Fold this sequence. Notes:
Helix 7 (147-158) links the parallel strand 2 (115-120) and strand 3. It contains 7 helices and 3 strands, in the order H-H-H-H-E-H-H-E-H-E. It starts with a helix and ends with a strand. A 3-stranded mixed β-sheet has the order 1-2-3. It folds into 2 domains: 2-44; 76-167, no CATH class. With 168 residues, the chain is mainly alpha-helical. Its cofactor is [4Fe-4S] cluster. It is found in: Mitochondrion. This is Lipoic acid synthase. InterPro entries: LIAS_N (IPR031691), Lipoyl_synth (IPR003698), rSAM_sf (IPR058240).
Amino acid sequence: AFGVEAFDACQASWEGKLRRALAGQQRWGLLTALKGPNFTDFVSGKDVLYSVEAPGWKEKKRKPDWMKRAPVPGGEKYTQIKAKLRELKLHTVCEEAKCPNIGECWGGGDGHTATATIMLMGDTCTRGCKFCAVKTSRTPPPLDPLEPANVAKAVASWGLDYVVLTRA
């Protein structure tokens, strides 16, 4: 009998400490276990009815309309810009940073302004910002001497509303 009483006292102390530690927190499993049968119930041999309601799935809320998945890039303007970039060996931040909105920017559909951001001095950035996906290097490859002329050709042929030029 002494062992059971000592264990119950220890368990009560432990439960109190745990309750204080979890105060204000919603820890379903631990709090539910504290509400259940204790050691005395187990040793007494009595049948103790104990059931726990399992957490159910709540109906998922729809995401707002502005939070939509970007459509797969495509369209006439997008294809034209991409082909010209390859032909003239130019690079854009849009491609290098793997921007999911590239189709919207280059395509300019749905009343959007068509735009592109060209990287000058190659496709490798020397800054190394932590938030950016553009590849970086302290020693980028040599510059293309034809790049200024190629940028001018590309901008003239694209027919975009505006073009952003940025240094890599």
